[in-house]
Write a structure and sequence with these properties.
It is a single chain. The chain has about 250 residues and is mainly α. About 80% of the residues lie in helices and about 0% in strands. It is globular and about 60 Å long. The two termini are about 25 Å apart. The relative contact order is 0.22.
């Protein structure tokens, strides 16, 4: 009886968090596991349910995309391939093994969210044009980000922003445009594979999608009234609590 309101509220909070500071998966995924859903199916369902938020994010920065054609051409395919490989490996991971990995994935995502803003400040901006070797290194890194995104996904935005900063991209709007389009690419191919493989719990996914969209919409008002750093600290605290609890359950 309580499953629907719980997954809706968790997705609402996750949608709002993703729009304001990121890290929504640290709420929505553990909520599904807490309700007794198999972790692998919960992860796949969470990816599909939160996909509309990625679509909205990519659409919101559409005016910046014509300036980023070279970046998109280089980073689109690693994102697509990495996202598919990560989702494929997830569905072929033994359930018991994935249960053992969950605490470390949650902890990794939480630490990423915590150090993300500092990470971008610590990265030195390179001088001069981008060499072919640096483009190749960025493409390989994006392949790894795509794999992680298809497998679990929490924190990929932080990883991509750090990489773009390292490559010398300075305009935050362009960085966010790239991040959102590439995140949609990763999550989109993973979601398609999960759907095709019948790994989605649709009774949860549909309610979560509605909740996530409502949370993302509500965040436009919430963001004007709360401090992003406060929201981020709250998400980090929740992430550490969930991660450490999962070590013992």
């Amino acid at each position: 009886m309580w499953d629907v309101p719980i997954v809706w509220i968790a997705a609402f909070i996750a949608g709002a968090m993703n729009a304001i500071a990121g890290g929504g998966t640290l709420v929505s995924f553990p909520a599904l596991v807490w309700l007794g859903r198999p972790p692998i199916l919960a992860n796949a369902t969470n990816t599909v349910a939160l996909l509309p938020g990625s679509i909205a994010g990519a659409f919101g920065f559409r005016r910046e995309l014509p300036k980023l054609r070279r970046w998109l051409l280089i980073l689109f395919w690693p994102s697509l391939v990495g996202g598919f490989l990560g989702s494929y490996v997830l569905l072929h991971t033994p359930e018991r093994l994935f249960r053992g990995i969950i605490p470390y994935l949650l902890l990794f995502a939480t630490v990423l969210l915590m150090v993300g803003p500092r990470l971008q400040r610590w990265i030195p901006r390179p001088a001069g044009p981008i060499s072919p070797w640096r483009w190749a290194a960025l493409a390989f890194f994006q392949l790894l980000v795509g794999f992680y995104g298809g497998y679990f996904g929490a924190g990929i935005g932080i990883l991509m922003l750090a990489a773009l900063e390292l490559m010398g991209l300075e305009d935050i709007h362009q960085m966010n445009a790239l991040k959102n389009v590439l995140a949609f690419t990763i999550n989109g191919i993973a979601a398609l594979y999960f759907i095709q493989s019948h790994a989605v719990l649709w009774g949860d996914a549909l309610w979560m999608a509605v909740g996530a969209m409502a949370g993302g919409y509500a965040s436009s008002t919430i963001a004007q009234r709360v401090d992003r750093s406060w929201v981020r600290r709250t998400v980090v605290a929740i992430g550490f609590l969930v991660a450490f609890r999962s070590f013992f359950h």
